[in-house]
Design a protein that fits this description.
Blueprint: E1 31-37, E2 40-46, H1 53-67, H2 75-80, H3 89-104, H4 114-119, H5 133-140, E3 149-152, E4 158-161, H6 174-188, E5 194-198, E6 201-205, E7 215-220, E8 230-236, E9 239-245, E10 250-252, E11 258-260, E12 275-282, H7 285-298, H8 300-307, E13 314-320, E14 326-331
Antiparallel strand pairs: 1-2, 2-5, 3-4, 5-6, 6-9, 7-8, 9-12, 10-11, 12-13, 13-14
Length: 336
Amino acid sequence: MKQFSLVLVLFILFMSCKDVTKDKSITFENTKLSGPVFGTNFNVIYHSKMNYIKQIDSLFAVVNQSMSTYIPNSDISRLNRNEDVILDDHFSKVFLASKEIFEATQGAFDPTIGNVVNAWSFGADKNKFLTDSTTIDSLMRYVGLDKVHPFNTKSGAIKIVRPIHTYLEFNAIAKGYGVDVIGEFLEREGIDNYLVEIGGEIRAKGMNKEKNTAWKVGLDEPRFDGKQSVLKAISLKDEAMATSGTYRKFKIDDNGNRYAHIINAKTGYPSKTNILSVSVIAEDCMIADAYATAFQAMGIGKVTEFLKAHPELKVFIIFENDEKEFETLNLNNFPE
């Protein structure tokens, strides 16, 4: 799964549960679950006595087995080795959503850029290093989600046809999808008030019943020193948010040049942008996750124009101006 993230500080996850032994007016406290997943950590908080950790861990295992390039025998790893793979529902949903966003962003979001990401040493292959233009040009011949197509077999199963050297990687969308999987599971269990977070990607429904307030989360202030501080807090209800940034994950070459992890799918090189982070609020986290990555590569001008036709997406951008000072941009009524 996608390894980078802007960790959004969740004020409520570990401080909102009261001591029910001291306050008899509370029937029960929120349940809080957490643990490692997708190369990061998850936090789930919901208003119920039931402990669903086994079910949640099981769902994570299924999603990982489907789409993790870090698992050698996962479906996507086998597909990238040109083995015969039938797509499960998780893979199919993420693939079809990726196709739609690829087309909407004119290729700014492209899950076939994975081999180029690896060549720059940002992906699953840790044995590769910053590379030269000959290597990049060779790999770019196989980049383009328009080269990859689903088809139905006679049995009704879904498979993928693609160029033999085209490498698929859903790191820029699958973590958000994992958030949605857990949120949808809780809803099927009749839970109407929850917050799910994986490495900074969030889905919230209802409210924090224990405090009788909205779910509140904080957006990180960009910092290159590895420390964490909150820029501002916002409330979320019945929506999801994902954030993509360049200031936490980058490489520095022997000459001191900084390379951001967002690779331009049209050039094969790290994106040259003054954007430090993009937060996107959407109906579900999978969509927010993908667009947050795409908007990093598109730049402020193209994002602003794009959002005129997409009022369903709320966006908050932190960028560096010509004086190397931080500025912010609120688009489509992103909450203050």
